[in-house]
Amino acid sequence: MGKLVKIILGIVGALLLVLALAVGAFALFFDPNDFREQITAAAKKATGRDLTVGEIKLGIYPVLGANVKGVSLSNAPGFGDQPMLQVAEADVGLRLLPLVLRRELVVGKVSLSGLKANLAKDAEGKSNWDDLAKGGAEDPAKPEDPAGKGAGLKSIDIGGINIRNADVSYSDQQSGQAYKVTGLNLETGSISPGDPFDLSLAFVTTIEAQKATADVKLSTRVEYDLEAQAYSAKKLVLKLLATLPDQKADIDLSGDLSADMKKQTATADKLSLKLKAKTADGTADVALDGSVSADLANKTALAEKLTVKLKAAMKDLNADADLSVRVSAEYDKPLVRAEKLSLALKASGASLPGGKQAATFTGDAIYDGSKGTLKLATGELKAADLGLEVMLGLDGSGLNTDAPRFMGPISIKNFNPRDLMKLLDIKVETHDPETLKALALRLKFDASTNSARISDLNMKLDQSTFTGNATISNFKTKAAEFALKLDTIDADRYLPTPTVPVKAAPLTPEEKAAVNATEVPSDVLDTLNVVGSVDIGKLKLKNVAMNAVQLRINALKGQEKTIGLGAQLYGGSIASTTRITSGATPRYVESLKLTSIAAGPLLLDFTGKESMTGEGNFAMDVTTSGTTVGALKQALNGDLSFSFLNGAVKGFNLGQILRKGDAFLKGQQFNDTEPVQTDFTQLGAAAKITNGVLQSDALDAKSPLFRVDGAGKVDLVRETIDYTAKPTIVNTASGQGGKDLPDLTGIVIPIKVSGTFDQPKYSLDLKAALTQKATQGLRDQLVGDKGDKLRDKIDSQLEKKLGTQLDGNPALKGKLQDGLNSLFGKKKKPAEPAPAPADPEAAPAPAP
Predict the structure, then answer these.
(1) What is the DSSP letter of 47?
(2) C-beta of residue 545 within 8 angstroms of C-beta of residue 537
(3) CB 476 within 8 A of CB 450
């Protein structure tokens, strides 16, 4: 564009040359209009373009002047018929006496009106002024006239410059952009060496593609000293009104500008910038004030005190901001220092917590562009309404590369999170309303475009302290590591208050099928790429107290995922390991062990009821695979076992129930007050799971009252139960806290559990057991002499009534004998008769 400006100035100079020729022509031939053809022919030869010149007027005394109208220059081939350059009227005058008498060139006001320049570039990048530039380059430079040496002008004065109604358009077919400058008006006062002059400029520019316009007005008083190389623009005023669709910006800039080129300094004093912007979303007013100085030799700049005020108004938000800062720069590096930075912000609106907020920020910052570094020192953010006070330090590096990095410390002074969440309209329900009332945080961060790390974490929440570190080593692979520690926490205080569970209706077959068809989100497992640990000194969760809690996660991408959990609780320990192998059919392995757990305190804390006591142990090792809930059930295989020692099942007293039933059958009154619990010395079972079916044949329970074994299965896929427990009464019930049950000794009481998980059925056949005992007692009474006599009578009656039938049916006779044997026992054989006593008379006489 620099060459273009030279061309335009050359064209304007050519016009002045035309005027000079016209003056000469007048002196020789009196009427310059007679020479228009010669002028246009000379222009055609020089440029190859058609030059049209209208009426020419000349003046002689006291001013030698010329006026020309209707000048136009045709366009280059291929750019249309519209002239490239048009001038409605040009006027210039020269005073003769100062030139002749004092060698002073005094030019009157130079006027140019109606200038229209149409500039263009085609799709190949060729412009419509290229041929003029080449033609100008071919003209050889004329040598200086040595005879004129020393005969120069003492001074040059111009009465002023006045350009009115100039229009310049430029279209670029390569970029598709088009620009226009219309209504350009430039006016100056008298221009004399060393004397100040006024200057005013106004024009409207348009960018057609963006439908953007800018109305520009500028005024100033120019002062200059060519010998001292000092220049200034006093009382500079620039007004710019820019418009876009649905947007408008009004800019006012004022100040005093000066430059001393010998000292290589420049200043902008009383600098003031005011911006008013309006969009469909709201309005904004910006005011900037300050002074700027520059050392051009050392390439430094300084804004001693720069202030910025902002007022913004939007539909739901109003904001005021005040900024003050001292800025110094070494712009060749570049190096920028922002010192004593102070920002105050106030905002109000329905979208803000509490309807209004205020915040302040202070600090010092240094940016070194050559090194690509940024440092923020002693940064402090205060949000009084939110109760937040944050201290921040920042070191940035690599800012001139594709891998910037930021690190530094952050600390947040103790504040009340509950109050903050209330202001932010965040509703949090906790069981204990006294939680979330104190939080303080310290940490160091180190982040880049590829990774982030938090170290030296120290967070105090109420009575708990969190420490540790966490790292995301690769954002793309989501590789993460963490190691966190927590001294003590009662998690129940932070959870919502438990609600009374509502018993849900049993699922329909269709609903069960839908549950089994639910896909397990195994794809989430594939994305895990984390290794970490969490250690908690004391944890209370669901009212269960645990110590030395350890959580370990090893879930590297593409490898088997392992989750380990360990803790000490209620005199014993828990250890769990879960291994997950992802893939088309994910595989799961679970190992769980509870050792030496005091069941009573655990159940009391967890359920609120001590329904069982004793020392408990539990072990489970299972595997499964699949992508749905139903598939996981069906592929479940493994072993589990449990055992309890020296405890009691509370809620029922089996010995009391049996004694009460025994008394009822005997018609006796029962009056016994015993603890409502069933004691045991040992209670355990083992089971094997095969393809989703749990089979147990190893139930073993011992107590002062009974011995129990049992067998059965539980189908986890169909959710059905088929299990029978067989307790046997032993005659030691006094150890249970009641009387012995000698009459019930040896009785087996079948307890059958059947049905479904939703609707299990329990049956205790106590009547059959007691009937069994009564039958046994009757049998005991019928065995012996009485039984034999009664059986003989029954045999005799059967022989009379069924004699002929029995003789012909030995099978029937055998069945009847078996039935009688089961009731009376086998019939005894008749006893051998005793030998007759000896005759006393035949006995020898005793010796004398």
Answers:
(1) H
(2) no
(3) yes
Tokens standing for 73?
């220059």
3-state secondary structure of 40: helix
**What are 438's two structure tokens?**
């104190």
Backbone dihedral angles phi then psi of residue 384, each to the nearest 5 degrees: -60, -45
Residue-wise pLDDT tens digits, 694-709: 999 888 888 877 788 8
Closest residue by Cα to residue 211 from 245, 180, 179, 178: 245
On whether the CB atoms of residues 153 and 140 are closer than 8 A, the answer is no
| DSSP code of residue 60 | -
Tokens of 428: 């949090």
Name residues whose C-beta falls within 8 Å of residue 320's C-beta, 6 or more positions apart in sequence: 309, 310, 311, 312, 345, 346, 347
Cβ proximity of 701 and 806 under 8 Å? no
Two tokens, residue 210: 């963006």
CB-CB contact of 282 with 314 (8 Å): yes
The set of residues, in sequence order, having a beta carbon less than 8 Å from that of 92 and lying 6+ positions away, is 16, 19, 65, 66, 107, 108, 110, 111
Displacement of CA 294 from its chain's centroid (Å): 45
Q: At what angle do helices 766-782 and 654-666 cross, to 10 degrees?
A: 50
Residues 6+ apart with CB under 8 A from 807: none
- Torsion region of 819: left, alpha or beta (phi above 0 gives left; psi -120 to 50 gives alpha): alpha
β strands within 173-263, DSSP E = 177-188, 197-207, 212-225, 230-244, 247-260
Give the whole-angstrom CA distance, residue 597 versus residue 414. Answer: 40
The residue among 706, 694, 726 whose CA lies nearest residue 659 is 706
Low-confidence ranges of the chain (pLDDT < 50): 16-17, 27-28, 136-143, 145-151, 733-738, 838-848
Quick one: tokens of 590? 């679970």
What pLDDT does 801 receive?
A: 61
* pLDDT score for 676: 79
The answer to whether residues 365 and 376 touch, using CB atoms and an 8 Å cutoff, is yes
- Cα distances (Å, whole numbers) of residue 426 to 353, 385, 497: 10, 16, 18
Per-state percent for the chain, helix, strand, coil, to nearest 5? 20, 50, 30
